[in-house]
Amino acid sequence: TRLPPRGTIAPATLTAIRQAAQLLRAGDIVGMPTETVYGLAADARNPEAVRKIFAAKERPADHPLIVHLSSADQLPRWAADISKDAAELARAFWPGPLTLILPRAAGVPDEVTGGQDTVGVRVPSHSIALALLQEFGGGLAAPSANRFGRISPTTAAHVQQELGDKVALVLDGGPCAVGIESSIVDCSRGEPEILRPGAITADAITRVLGRPPKVRAEPAAAEWTEEPAAPRVSGSLAAHYAPATPLRLLPAALLVEEAAELAAEGSRVAVLAHACPDPGDSRLTWIAVGADPAAYAHALYARLRALDALGADFILVETPPADPAWAAVTDRLGRAAAGSGEADET
Ligand code: TXA
Ligand code: MG
């Protein structure tokens, strides 16, 4: 991720960072940019502050949160046991879009871990997140700053749209460089296992560990729940990262035909295609996207928001290539499809 060094943070932003740290110390919640998506941050040692996150997101209280740290040096305060694999992954990828699940240290609130014996931790690479963490001094619990089940925010304006009146302050760090949530690797029980694919790919992890990580098998799309395929929590709800407009994933071979058919029936159809050329049908909103997975991920959530805002009857998305480099994007699109169209059903 290409980020300005800390020295280039504008004075007005430094003032806002100090104000945010003060609000966090007082037990308030704050919108925080990271290189992945915007987070909704609270003092991870303050259960009352952490409960405000769940209230603002309308998120079930048993969903665990990720603790953000300014440096791996703080890890012993949060994790009871740091395996050699975990230490190597932290050294290789922090600061960066990797979350490690580790056995939790004594004193980590149940509100953060969802009552589990593990804790999720990461050191983000966004200069403003790092500056805020340094100024605050402790760990910040932060899930994505969207209402539960909705598309994750990748700009400060998205956070305002999602949670505007519920947060004390939103720090503006520009559009997120990565654009999708961190890769999550469980290092708490033996062989490292990828629970959620992200910008740190299985290949990159293999190069560090010297062997491939386990990968949590994907459930059928209909069984997709928010985040890691099967988070170790009870009662997780179905379907997320979802636009209100019904979204379908289709292979290129079927895309043009299906879009034309729906349009002929009088439906308004928005299409996100990458290998598949625009058929030039004026009844379709056809958006061509590049064939680079990192660029696709960077723009994905903003595109889904924009597509949703068109008020079309259907969003059709070309299925990404079946290549490991596309695993994270394919995962998020599958969840978006599974959870889409809720407005029609209720
Ligand atoms: O990139 C990211 O990870 C962003 C930014 C803000 O850092 N955060 C994020 O948080 O995506 P959230 O809450 O939307 O997703 C975190 C997921 C949870 O859904 C949870 O299932 C998983 O991480 N998680 C956290 N702690 C865990 C634990 N102890 N065991 C298993 N999964 C855990
Ligand atoms: Mg989330």
Helix content: 25-40%
Classify the beta-strand content into a percent band: 15-25%
Radius of gyration: 20 Å
The CATH homologous superfamily of the largest domain corresponds to DHBP synthase
Q: What's the rounded overall pLDDT mean?
A: 90
Number of domains: 2
Regions with little confidence, pLDDT below 50 for 5+ residues: 220-239
- CATH topology of the largest domain: the name is DHBP synthase
Give the strand order, joined by hyphens, for the main sheet: 7-1-2-6-3-5-4-8-9-10
Count the E strands: 14
- Main sheet overview: 10 strands, mixed
- Shape-level CATH architecture of the largest domain: Alpha-Beta Complex
Briefly note the structural class of the backbone.
alpha/beta
How many H/I helices?
11
Q: Sum up the overall morphology in one term.
A: globular
For the terminal residues, how far apart are their CA atoms? 40 Å
Structure description:
About 6% of the residues have low confidence. The chain folds into two domains: 218 residues, DHBP synthase (Alpha-Beta Complex); 99 residues, Rossmann fold (3-Layer(aba) Sandwich), CATH 3.40.50.11030. Helix 1 packs across helix 5. The protein has 346 residues and is of the alpha/beta class. The chain contains eleven helices and 14 strands. Threonylcarbamoyladenylate binds next to strand 4 and strand 5. It comes from Pseudothauera rhizosphaerae. One of its GO terms (molecular function) is tRNA binding.
Mind sketching the topology for me?
Elements: H1 11-25, E1 30-32, E2 39-43, H2 47-57, E3 66-68, H3 84-93, E4 98-103, H4 110-113, E5 118-122, H5 127-136, E6 140-141, H6 156-163, E7 169-170, E8 183-186, E9 193-196, H7 202-209, E10 214-215, E11 247-250, H8 252-264, E12 269-273, E13 284-288, H9 293-309, E14 314-318, H10 327-339, H11 342-345
Parallel strand pairs: 1-7, 3-5, 4-8, 9-10, 11-14, 12-13, 12-14
Antiparallel strand pairs: 1-2, 2-6, 3-6, 4-5, 8-9
Helix pairs in contact: 1-5
Bound molecules: threonylcarbamoyladenylate and magnesium ion.
The site of magnesium ion has 3 residues, from loops.
